[in-house]
């Protein structure tokens, strides 16, 4: 997520563990290959479109084009949540294949989100406790082809510390 937020143009996530990568026969090397000339310099260009904060959420809570997703457990959601948020636990986007946990396929995620009434034309804001599960949920939405997705990295802890209303 950090590389995406800082605008790196080529972020790729490995969707299997390193051991599975090796077992599948994919290449692994300890060799560092340097191209001739000076090393490339990466300059951060913050991508504001993938992050939300408390102020942003307050302005969007009543917007019918925005869906606020609580990526926590049902117990956490029903104990305290950001008003108008809906529960879609990060674990609901996980599946199992050949004995390992992985993000569900694009088709499975699309079906799941459609069944939950989460339309692709809406802006999605994910939150959890402190942003970790929300980041995972963000990746699930991106895997499913959603373009307008944000993460509230401060999540419920930040929301409550700012004395915003809880439901």
Question: Could you describe the 3D structure shown?
Answer:
It is globular and about 55 Å long. The protein is of the alpha/beta class. The protein has helices at 2-5, 18-23, 54-60, 74-79, 106-115, 132-143, 155-161, and strands spanning 51-52, 66-70, 85-87, 94-97, 100-103, 123-127, 149-152. The strands form 2 sheets. A 5-stranded parallel beta sheet has the order 1-7-6-2-3. A two-stranded antiparallel ribbon has the order 4-5. The protein has a domain at 47-161: 3-Layer(aba) Sandwich (Oxidized Rhodanese, domain 1).
Main sheet attributes: strand count, strand direction, barrel closure? 5 strands, parallel
**CATH homologous superfamily assignment of the domain at 47-161:** Rhodanese-like domain
Q: Shape from CA axes? A: globular
The helix/strand class is: alpha/beta
Gyration radius (Cα, Å) is 18 Å
What fold name stands as the CATH topology of the domain at 47-161? Oxidized Rhodanese, domain 1
Work out the helix count. Answer: 7
CATH level 1 class label of the domain at 47-161: Alpha Beta
Measured as a percent range, the helix fraction is 25-40%
SSE succession = HHEHEHEEEHEHEH
Note poorly predicted spans: none
- The fraction of residues assigned to DSSP E strands is 15-25%
For the secondary structure, the number of strands is 7
């Amino acid at each position: 997520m950090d590389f995406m937020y800082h605008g790196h143009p080529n972020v790729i996530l490995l969707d299997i563990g390193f051991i599975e990568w090796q077992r599948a026969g994919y290449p692994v090397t300890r060799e560092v290959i340097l191209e001739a000339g000076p090393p490339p310099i990466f300059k951060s260009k913050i991508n504001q479109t993938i992050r939300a904060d408390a102020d942003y959420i307050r302005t969007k809570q009543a917007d019918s084009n925005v869906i606020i997703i609580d990526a926590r457990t049902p117990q956490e959601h029903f104990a305290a949540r950001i008003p108008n948020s809906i529960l879609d636990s990060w674990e609901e986007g996980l599946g199992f294949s050949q004995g390992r946990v992985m993000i569900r396929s694009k088709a499975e995620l699309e079906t799941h989100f459609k069944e939950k009434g989460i339309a692709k034309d809406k802006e999605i804001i994910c939150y959890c406790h402190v942003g970790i599960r929300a980041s995972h949920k963000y990746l699930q939405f991106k895997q499913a082809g959603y373009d307008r997705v944000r993460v509230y990295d401060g999540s419920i802890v930040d929301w409550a510390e700012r004395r915003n209303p809880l439901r």
